[in-house]
Automatic annotation (TrEMBL):
<comment type="similarity">
    <text>Belongs to the actin-binding proteins ADF family. GMF subfamily.</text>
</comment>
<dbReference type="GO" id="GO:0003779">
    <property type="term" value="F:actin binding"/>
</dbReference>
<dbReference type="GO" id="GO:0030864">
    <property type="term" value="C:cortical actin cytoskeleton"/>
</dbReference>
<dbReference type="GO" id="GO:0071846">
    <property type="term" value="P:actin filament debranching"/>
</dbReference>
<dbReference type="Pfam" id="PF00241">
    <property type="entry name" value="Cofilin_ADF"/>
</dbReference>
<feature type="domain" description="ADF-H">
    <location>
        <begin position="1"/>
        <end position="98"/>
    </location>
</feature>
<dbReference type="GO" id="GO:0034316">
    <property type="term" value="P:negative regulation of Arp2/3 complex-mediated actin nucleation"/>
</dbReference>
<dbReference type="InterPro" id="IPR002108">
    <property type="entry name" value="ADF-H"/>
</dbReference>
<dbReference type="InterPro" id="IPR011171">
    <property type="entry name" value="GMF"/>
</dbReference>
<protein>
    <submittedName>
        <fullName>Glia maturation factor beta</fullName>
    </submittedName>
</protein>
<dbReference type="GO" id="GO:0005634">
    <property type="term" value="C:nucleus"/>
</dbReference>
<dbReference type="InterPro" id="IPR029006">
    <property type="entry name" value="ADF-H/Gelsolin-like_dom_sf"/>
</dbReference>
<dbReference type="GO" id="GO:0071933">
    <property type="term" value="F:Arp2/3 complex binding"/>
</dbReference>
<keyword id="KW-0963">Cytoplasm</keyword>
<keyword id="KW-0539">Nucleus</keyword>
Amino acid sequence: MSDAEICFQDCELEEICDELPSQQPRYILISYKLAHSDGRESFPMCLIFYTPSDCSPDVQMLYAGSRNNLVKECELTKSLEIREVEELTKEMLDSKML
């Protein structure tokens, strides 16, 4: 694992949010427990593209240009984008993944 990679296991979203920089984009590959209305549980995986408002446009373009390739290589069906750390909540994930 390189210095640019951080791996969390069995953690809360708040822990991930605490590690996100305020001026650098990040890709977040996440799998989490999703409870369905019929009682089933699933563990969907999705890519979250975090691109803060304060980030330079050049860096935003660099990350945005690689996003689709990453989604394709990881064979993901869900990809989300957030601009502010506060957007990354369980409620947001549940609403986008159901």
